[in-house]
Amino acid sequence: MRGASGALGAMGTGAQNLRHHTASPLAYSRFERVAWPVSSGAMSGLPDRVRLVIFDLDGVVYRGNEPIPGARELVEFLHLAGVAVRFATNNSMVARAGYVDRLGSMGIGAGIDEIVTSTSATVEHLRRHAPDVHAVLAIGADGMRAELLEAGLEVTMAGDAAFAAHDGGPLDQRYDAVLVGLDPEVDYRRLAVAMSAVTGGASLIATNADARYPTPSGFLPGAGSILAALATATGVLPEVIGKPSPAMFAAAVEASGIDPREAVVVGDNPDADVAGAHRAGLTAILVLTGVADAATAAALEGERRPEATAAGPAEVRVLLAKRLS
Known about the structure:
CATH architecture of the largest domain: 3-Layer(aba) Sandwich
Distance between the termini: 49 Å
Shape: elongated
Number of helices: 12
CATH class of the largest domain: Alpha Beta
CATH superfamily of the largest domain: HAD superfamily/HAD-like
Largest sheet: 6 strands, parallel
CATH topology of the largest domain: Rossmann fold
Number of strands: 16
């Protein structure tokens, strides 16, 4: 537990300045780093053998409604080579089936099990690490609700539990966890009932902590802004699943059954994709088709510095081809 001012202070510092994963800093999450059994040279370069490739979506596979040139061919190449492929996004509002349809409309074949949203990663994390969580109060959109119900959780949306006369007292039902995603219709009543659930003993878990959500015209408040209100009001430091927290990539690797030493993350965002991969003990390829350009990539240091940089999907294919045998 932390005081309200402490929780707010942790979220208000070190804000990242990138466009589609503008996340709160790692201090916001109770997940620090995943301790995979890596070899001494695991982070010095790409794996000698690659059996799992985890792609970010926007800026890597597509940009808006258009596929990145070469992305379809790269995914097809990996599928034909028998490499496991996952597509990871912090978006909690759209169910995985929606991404299958979107990728399919671009000629990119993907199965529903290959899609990892911040909601599905949260479900996987709960299944493996918090199996006693059954009854959840959720702040989020319809896609999040659908994923949680499909997972067999007992789901109450905050909008359904909120009522005008709620004065901050105990709720009629006890919840195991409050799950927070992006809810475009969030209001004071939903925040109030979620606060009461947490003060009543529910854990506070965020699908992601993105401070902002991109639109064609600019930005809107993201799930992290909702989470900030709850963390401040309750004084509770939440668990954050989405990038750059390691939990999202860890959930994807665990579900695949593949040795993490044989996994690579391909992303365009040093702060979300590359740092998140390294926090999960994975290697990363930074592609220059989205957030970062060559000058930015050359100046990266620490956990934001990838094991390899590629101009686009064609160069990623070259980097991976000799590591698929």
